[in-house]
Amino acid sequence: xxxxxxxxxxxxxxxxxxxxxxxxxxxxxxxxxxxxxxxxxxxxxxxxxxxxxxxxxxxxxxxxxxxxxxxxxxxxxxxxxxxxxxxxxxxxxxxxxxxxxxxxxxxxxxxxxxxxxxxxxxxxxxxxxxxxxxxxxxxxxxxxxxxxxxxxxxxxxxxxxxxxxxxxxxxxxxxxxxxxxxxxxxxxxxxxxxxxxxxxxxxxxxxxxxxxxxxxxxxxxxxxxxxxxxxxxxxxxxxxxxxxxxxxxxxxxxxxxxxxxxxxxxxxxxxxxxxxxxxxxxxxxxxxxxxx
Length: 292
Known about the structure:
- There is one protein chain.
- This protein has six helices and eleven strands.
- By secondary structure, the chain is α+β, with helices and mostly antiparallel strands.
- Strands 4-5-6-10-9-8-7 form a seven-stranded antiparallel β-sheet.
């Protein structure tokens, strides 16, 4: 289901608000401060509208407004053997897929710029909660952990804590408590969202002779475990792609479905998680860098 994002506000509202402030009879200094803040706010809204797609995605208690240029891929109900929205080069199914988007970006291949796809996946443990009373069903409280090790296997990395990573020392390490927006100026208008992030990269992982990497933005903990996964080529030659992504990350939100039952006895207790990098458990060793 798609809804209009509330940031899409007309300039008329700005004019009316400015007029209302001018009629309050307050001192000129207070008026000027309010007017300056209003102008700054609408400049922020203008940046948001330029950076994000016009509609918000809402599915399975997950909400997200993707960056402009990403197109939602419909799920093929005919193929029950695999999720046809996912890139064909993936060797395994990614757990908890809620929505998948795709866009082409310019990538530097030697001295040449070529168009290659970027995939963006919104993930959560909602499906696990729906099946939590089924015997043998995966534990929804271990979703982050299972997702992480699925991706490690996909990338072909066996141990991210090794000290001999060589040129990849700035990758494959968790960064905890990363917030978006990442500037105090923008947090006045958008409540920051906190992520644990990691970039998984293996020089041997290539698609169509292009080195690929997985950027994971892990969100929530305990009952509410979700993530944004971006599968992209390295050396993307588009700063707007990165800036638009930063504007989109504060719109990501997820809570487990209200009707979901607790896991059967013997599973992890609510509010706990063994997920690497989760906000309520110690993060793995970190190093400078990572991210996109």
